[in-house]
Each structure stands twice: as structure tokens, then as C-alpha cells.
């Protein structure tokens, strides 16, 4: 492949990505209401604690709410072109169904966005990232209730209108497909018997599709230059062997993910899913006009996160291993190493995913999360030598570059957690992703001081050379 085709385009959006609930803290300040993250002390895969008796690190985050100027200055020093963050719904509508937005919440993001723009950093906003007002869970039952669509649309319209001159890039829901795996975090869903119930999950998904389409419609009206994307957690699945049954199992597993981007990007329910609903007695209630709305308001780009790949096997001896390893389920891939948390490291998988998504949708891709969660050690001299993180990122960026060489259109790359923040799956600060270390532990102890890791200068150099100097 010639180096001419393997080049990052001018204007490529290099940067980092975060979520409000994982770094802001200040969970009750300036009129903010309680969000689902505020009642999830053990992370996205665990049940909530509405009594709030347990210590919850999300309440404090890394205090970005007060320290954002200092942190953004560090991102600017690295040369960030883009910064992806979410707007906490509960700062704007504390209970979700409030008549008027909370001015102080709106002002916070105004100030934060202005700070980014001062450094020419493009804000990329996720409207909903793994949280919703607890009021919408308690009083409406979360996303299985159609009324929540209206509250979300109102929230989206409010922020489009407020930030219309400052924000072009938007995303409707973070990792929308994670609703299947973490229904409380993804959809505010609770099940009486504690057992996941697909009827409620897919009904909630339909409501989110409608809400997403309404947001795309409103966003395009209010901000004609806006680009509004979907965001999926990509979970590419390999067949364990060349047995045809394994191949089909991998295809079936992939469809659980791609279903979400299929609806948001192609604008209709794929037949494989409609048939699945029929066969499993899942009855999705739709309103007149829903299908037209989905069809007419598809997303402009495909945003996705990529951390690892998965394996499907139909061999009985692998059944036992299904829950081990990766975050959700899957068989161990004998060809791959894994992170300390069992996430299987697979840079080449990123190239494959890019090709797969681009073949399928023919829309620009935006890699909005990628990174290595690891335990970092502060040396006696205060340095943090995270060579393992550099290695992980370098290999992934190389494969992203190869995908560009394959002809895939990629808009940008925002690595996950450019500054250490609270982990979504563990609710701790042990699993770190940052180029910037935060002196704070999982109990919330520490000076909160920011320290540059070795990867800080490395990433700075990547951006300065637009990915030439890998
Ligand atoms: C994604 C989420 C993020 C983030 C990341 C890393 O699924 O969108 O919110 O946290 O994964 O996961 P973790 O923090 O569990 O290591």
C-alpha cells in the first residue's frame, strides 16, 4: 500500500472523549438533579442503590466541574482538535420532566464550550451518555415509557438552541446497543424479578430510535451545519473455528450490535430483527408515523467505540467459558492478549470494524472511544511510564490508518479518557485511561493534582504530525 493513500486527511479530528457522570463530580451543585449514575455505586453492570447508602465515586468524579479550565489547558497543550463530552441531562432538567431548564446548568456548558473554543478545540457533544434523570425512572419507568421520548426531545431542542452557534458535532446516545447488556444504565429499566426482559428492552430501544430521529430532525432544523451521529459500542465477533455453525453464531452475535446502527443509519428495521421479534413473541408498539420518521431522519455519521473483539463458538466445551473474559460474554481468543480486566487487545480488529461499518453504511466514521484501561504506577521521581498505553494506542492508530488506506472515510479519533476518570464498569479509579494522571483513588482520597504521563508527549507528537510520526 502506498503511503499516499495511507494518510490522515487534513482537518482530522484528533482528541479525547469523556462523559459528564464519570468526571464532573459536583453531583448536587447549582441545581443538578440525581441521575442514574448517582445511584449506581458499583458501575453500569450492577444494580442501582436508590437509598444511596454506599459510597459512590461518581458523586465526586475528578472534580472537572471546578477544574475544567486547568484540564482543557492541558488538552490544548496536547494539540487537541476535538473534545467529546456529554451534557448531564440532570444539570439542565433536574427531574427530567421540569417545565423550564436550569439556567445554571446551561451556563456551565456555555462556559466550558467557550473555553474549548478559545483554543480552537471543536466540541463534540453526546446528548445522553449512560445516564438519565432518576425522576424519569421512578415516575415513568425509564425508556420503556413513550413519554420519555418527549422529555428527551425537549432536552435535545433546549441544548441545540442554546449552543447552536458553538457546537456542530453531536451524537444522540452513547453506545446505544449497551441497552441490551446494561438495561438500567442504557434505558433506566428495572425488572421486577431481576431478570432481563427482552420485551421491555426492545420497546425501550424503539423509543430511543424515535427520540434519536427526532433529535436529528430538530438538530438539522436548528443548526443547519450540524452533523449528528449515532454511537455504538462496536463488538465485532469472530467465529472460533471455520465450522459453519461458528460462522453463523458470529454473524448472529454481530447483528445484536449492528441492529442499532442499521435502524439509525439505514432508517428501517432489518428483517432479521422483525423476524426475531415474531419468533420470540416480542411485540413492539409503534405509533403512526414512527417508521417514516426513522426513514427520514437518519444519522450523518457513524460514531463508535472500539476496545476489543469477541469470539463466538458453538462447541460445547466452550460454553463454560462464555461469561469469562471480555466485558459481556464470549470465548477467549487464543491469538490475543487481554488487558488486566480481560478485554482482548486486537488492533487489527479496528481495521476490520472500520471496513465492515463503511461497507455497510457508506457514511463517514468517527472513532469516538478507544483506549487501554490499566493500573498506573507513580515512580519515586513522580513520573508515570505508561509504555503499555502508548503501545496499545499506537497499534490501533496504525490500523485506523490502514483502514483509511482501504478507502474508509474517517472523520476523527477521540481516545477514551484523556484524563483519568471514573470507570464505567467498575466505578473505581483503579482502571485508568488518561494521558493525564489524577492523584485520587477509588475511595476519593488524594490531592486531585494532575500529572502528565509519558503518553502525554507521545500523543502530542501524533497530533502535531497528523499521525505521520507513529
Ligand atoms: C465505554 C463507555 C465509557 C467508558 C469506556 C471504558 O463503554 O462509553 O463510558 O467508561 O467504555 O469502560 P470502563 O470505564 O469500564 O473501562
Automatic annotation (TrEMBL):
<keyword id="KW-0326">Glycosidase</keyword>
<feature type="active site" description="Nucleophile">
    <location>
        <position position="369"/>
    </location>
</feature>
<dbReference type="Pfam" id="PF00232">
    <property type="entry name" value="Glyco_hydro_1"/>
</dbReference>
<keyword id="KW-0378">Hydrolase</keyword>
<dbReference type="InterPro" id="IPR033132">
    <property type="entry name" value="GH_1_N_CS"/>
</dbReference>
<comment type="similarity">
    <text>Belongs to the glycosyl hydrolase 1 family.</text>
</comment>
<dbReference type="InterPro" id="IPR001360">
    <property type="entry name" value="Glyco_hydro_1"/>
</dbReference>
<dbReference type="InterPro" id="IPR017853">
    <property type="entry name" value="GH"/>
</dbReference>
<dbReference type="InterPro" id="IPR018120">
    <property type="entry name" value="Glyco_hydro_1_AS"/>
</dbReference>
<protein>
    <submittedName>
        <fullName>6-phospho-beta-glucosidase</fullName>
    </submittedName>
</protein>
